[in-house]
Model the fold of this input.
Amino acid sequence: MVVTGGVDCFNDIFMYMCFSKTPALSPTGDSKPFDASGDGTILGEGLGMVVLKRLDDAERDGDRVYAVLKGIGSSSDGKGKAIYAPSPEGQVKALTAAYELAGVSPATIELVEAHGTGTKVGDAAEVKALTEVYRAARPEGTWAALGSVKSNIGHTKAAAGSAGFIKAVLALKHKVLPPTIKVKEPLPEFATGNLPLYVNTEKRPWVPSAGHPRRAGVSAFGFGGSNFHAVLEEHVPQKTEVDWDGSVELLAFSGPDEAAVRGALTPFAAGLPWNELRLKAVESRKTFDRNAPWRLVAVVEKAKGGKPAADAVFVASGAPQGKLAMLFPGQGSQYVGMGRDLACQFPEMLDSLAGANAALDERLSDVVYPHPAFNQPGRDAHEGALRATDMAQPAIGAVSLGALGVLGRFGVTPELVAGHSYGELTALCAAGRLAPADLFKLSKLRGTLMAAGGGDKGTMLAVLAPIADVYAAVNSEKLDVVLANKNAPEQAVLSGSTAAIKAAAEALTKRGLRNTAIPVAAAFHSKLVADASKPLREGMAPMALAAGRIPVYSNTTAQPYPDHAEAAKDLLAGQLAAPVEFLGEIEAMYAAGARVFLEVGPGGRLTGLVKAILKGKDFTAAAVDGSNGRASGALDLAKSLGQLATLGFPVDLTPWEDGEAGVKHLLTAKKSRATLSLSGATPLGARHNVPIDAKTLP
Done:
């Protein structure tokens, strides 16, 4: 066993005087590796140590293995222009030696932790060397995420290589492609988009590629032309644990009466250090009893500035009211980056994305989490690629199924399910009627068929008006359209040819009925896509679609799917061209006892529709992605779990933050100054859950 690494805490005036004699230091005091405006580096301090051990010995001894070091290559530039002048030729030698020694092709390296100091000359030289070696291994394509930890902590000199090494090791362990920061416009070398490398400025899940394990390369260069490159590989392909970061906590209290719950809040009245709050949160979740007469759950987040704020408090008393229904969104809910936080944090979401890639034999995940774009046309292109029906539908299915798996980790299971349009396929999978692989294949087929064919496939128009008024307008104006979606009492969607929808928009506008064109590939749920029903039905032939564990409500009939497989297949195939009776569907589920509707998948559109449909009735509607990606995924998830637990549904909160195991290190950790006060924040008189805005908390 070897303990090795780098240490450098030597940033005195002498060090700055030495560096000031070179053109390396940034006059603006900001290190921006690979950014077009980069003007140099800044100095940092650091200590980074790692333990090296033969893999066989480490596995035999039961050690936690973070990554496997496959090989290290080194070289010297020899005589150069100056002691600080980089040499692409010398770097190529180190890179080539590393990959030859490791027995690994650069074509399989998907993360490069570069030396990347932030100097234009140095960064450009490094990109040139990497491109030469990587392009020789694979003539086309862009596959390697490029970054530098110096954008975060500066140049730690003798510890810089260790810092980059540890960053790459952790990326492999956690299956996350980490972002490099401060890049607004990459170096001109990246402008063509033809390099094997791309600057990765966004945290993205590292979904595995077929044919090889996840691998990373790490470079470290020194004055005088000393070049080193290490090749790393993941130890196991599976993400085996949740990556908690301690930024969101759930405080859960229960008791026989209102006074008991209020008493549980007493220790928080004056505020607590954040780490102490985390310890008490673990204890609160251990003792929480969903069957107690009174229940309260507070969701708190440690804000970026170090001060946590109570985001929501949910209160309820009495037994659970009714059943838990889950709703799965359809096309239109997708957005680039959907489910990003959960995919980087939870094995269930990552596995769902990997399963979709494998079932479709293509990188669907790269459409959901594409390489970063640095201008609006690039971002628009990403959105357009995901909007295509053959991509959007399996992508929504993968993210929704992953979110369902995350909920399952906490014991949350539905008693009945439904989906909106495409989401009905995900609902069938959630009920056990479709296997996940069949869901992805059927989603791809459905999306492909809906976009196929020549001529005008039509479009759709959303109308915000009472459905009776929409019917009256369509009949009175003799519009050649169909009422494709009855989404809510005052929200409908029309489908028809492009010309017919244009005429409908003009006619409805004249009548004062608000309407908005929907950017879709075809007039879904109308006769214009009916020709896709037959091949879709044929595609279901090898799929079981057997009776499920729980009822799945149909968009077409607003009633549960038939148990008989062939009848269910006929109904699902016909759903493609039949109107969506979502309003009637939700009312039928409510009549069947559903009182809590949880939207599982991207966004929260269905949650809004449910609130409109059941307005005035006793119910709760929430979404796992309630912020539509604007808040952290963990925060949105915590809100959903907190609401369900407060309402008395079977939710196991103890796995949050890995329970006691996740906070053991805090027992000796220095306490954070961040505090939280919950005093007076709980109007416990309400019977059902009451979300409280953070502004109402002292």
User: Anything to note?
Assistant: Residues 679-698 have pLDDT under 50 and may be disordered. Residues 476 and 641 are 48 Å apart (CA to CA). The radius of gyration is 28 Å. The chain is about 35% helix and 20% strand.
